Amino acid sequence: MSPAEAASASGRHIGKLWIAFGIGAVFMVVEFAVGWATSSLALISDAAHMLTDVLGVGMALAAIILARRATTGLNRTFGLYRAEVLAALANAVLLFGVAGYVLYEAVGRFGDPPAVPGVPVVLAASLGLVANIASFLMLRGGAKESINVRGAYLEVLADLVGSVGVLLSGFATLVFGWRYADPITGVLIGLWVLPRTWKLAKNALHILFQHAPQGLDVAAVQADLAKLPGVTEAHDLHVWTLTSGMEVASAHLTIGHDADPAEVLRIAQALLAERYHIEHATLQVEPGDSARRCREMSW
């Protein structure tokens, strides 16, 4: 994926993100108001989680705007594409905080669960569920193309499951008068959020630490480059991800004295693009007697 394609992967979903932001903000206020009025921990926790949806989608929008405004420049040689990854990591941190709060508060209520009126909780949860389904459907396509949009999508997905839990909790309270339904639902919401949050944070950190793209065999890439006609050695190979769908590589290729540097460069770039889908590769072609300095470097 080229830089322009990667930028448009998030950019073409910006309208849907704005709609999801508006829907989340309105129904977050509704759930918070009803939750505080009824002392429903499940509803308050779902509203707090919806707050992270609103903040997460807001950061996703900000990241896309930054990336589109500053994709080039002498002082920003890679633009601001990493803003998307930072937004995804911030979303994960918010989710960890909300999940931890929900678990802590829910456990504290098991000793003396308060009476929670079922009707207001069911109505508010139903509205929240409708809002989350709408946002989920709008962001589902973009989640496959951008880690930034995926961060917002995962938050909406987790909140959708939370809304279902709150709805069931409200029905249990309404029909059976079971006070433990509310704190149990709070625990289940927290346990649902944590593993998905960890995966999102792990993927974001994987990119920020400039690890090789997941599923890419770096040793195989180096071996294939070394086997190219005219190449005697491939070294100083680095492969990393700039942002979703934008893999970048750099390498030194040592060639024989009778090899054509331009031809070696052409076939090496073609190999990386066609076999490994790395469109942006910076390759240094060097004669055999100049490769010694690279081996003497410590990193």
From TrEMBL:
Cation efflux protein cytoplasmic domain residues: 214-287
Key word NADP present: no
GO cellular component: plasma membrane
Keyword Chaperone: no
TM stretches of this protein: 17-36, 48-67, 79-104, 116-139, 151-171
Pfam families in the cross-refs: Cation_efflux, ZT_dimer
UniProt xrefs under InterPro entries: Cation_efflux (IPR002524), Cation_efflux_CTD (IPR027470), Cation_efflux_CTD_sf (IPR036837), Cation_efflux_TM (IPR058533), Cation_efflux_TMD_sf (IPR027469), CDF/SLC30A (IPR050681)
Cation efflux protein transmembrane domain segment(s): 17-208
Topology with respect to the bilayer: Multi-pass membrane protein
GO molecular function list: zinc ion transmembrane transporter activity
Localisation: Membrane
The entry's keywords: Ion transport, Membrane, Transmembrane, Transmembrane helix, Transport
Xref: NCBIfam families: CDF
Family of the protein in this entry: Belongs to the cation diffusion facilitator (CDF) transporter (TC 2.A.4) family. SLC30A subfamily.
Name of the featured protein: Cobalt-zinc-cadmium efflux system protein
Organism: Umezawaea tangerina
